[in-house]
């Protein structure tokens, strides 16, 4: 009897673990969303203003790699790191709701196109500590640019969707910009 109990207990545990999976391929298992306590998916919309500040004594964007070719009008190869404020309104003095943290790189030789890699890290209300991750192409001089949401954390775990970016204000002398971001995200 003493030998039967540990064997029976281990079989029950193994059965319990695999009862949450639908299919197994050895290297991958399909899990039931209830295992992660995921609720019904919902669509949320956020409108935020992204302030990319190169000028002044406290910049939020810094060039970390200069363009290797000086004769490139697009600065192809240049990379900037960002820790940009996200605010409710277009003025930098409006309520701070988070930060856009990541980098962007000039990824097109013949046009002004950036590769954007950033997290919108929320610092307010129920979204505090949650992030939305964006990775995509940004044709900066187009009136509206669309980039994919590729995931997130916290309340945005398993998120997917897209963002629309519209330049609100751009200073060609300093490089400072304010961009309106409309974020459409499906999440649990």
From TrEMBL:
Residues 1-26 form the signal peptide. It is found in: Secreted, Extracellular space, Apoplast. Pfam families: Dirigent. The keyword Aminoacyl-tRNA synthetase does not apply. Keywords: Apoplast, Secreted, Signal. GO terms for cellular component: apoplast. GO terms for biological process: phenylpropanoid biosynthetic process. The keyword Nuclease does not apply. Homodimer. Dirigent proteins impart stereoselectivity on the phenoxy radical-coupling reaction, yielding optically active lignans from two molecules of coniferyl alcohol in the biosynthesis of lignans, flavonolignans, and alkaloids and thus plays a central role in plant secondary metabolism. Belongs to the plant dirigent protein family. This is Dirigent protein. It comes from Citrus sinensis.
């Amino acid at each position: 009897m003493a030998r039967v109990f540990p064997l029976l207990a281990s079989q029950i545990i193994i059965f319990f673990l695999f009862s949450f999976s639908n299919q197994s391929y050895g290297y991958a298992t399909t899990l039931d969303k209830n295992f992660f306590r995921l609720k019904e998916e919902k669509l949320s919309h956020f409108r935020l203003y992204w302030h990319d500040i190169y000028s002044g004594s406290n910049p939020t964007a810094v060039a970390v790699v200069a363009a290797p070719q000086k004769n490139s009008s697009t600065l192809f190869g240049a990379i900037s790191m960002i820790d940009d404020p996200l605010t409710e309104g277009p003025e930098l003095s409006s309520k701070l709701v988070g930060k856009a943290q990541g980098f962007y790189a000039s990824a097109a030789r013949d046009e002004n196109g950036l590769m954007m890699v950033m997290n919108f890290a929320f610092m307010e209300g129920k979204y505090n500590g949650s992030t939305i991750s964006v990775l995509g192409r940004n044709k900066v001089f187009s009136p509206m640019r669309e980039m994919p949401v590729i995931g997130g954390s916290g309340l945005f775990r398993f998120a997917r969707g897209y963002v629309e970016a519209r330049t609100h204000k751009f200073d060609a002398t300093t490089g400072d910009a304010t961009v309106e971001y409309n974020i459409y995200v499906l999440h649990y």
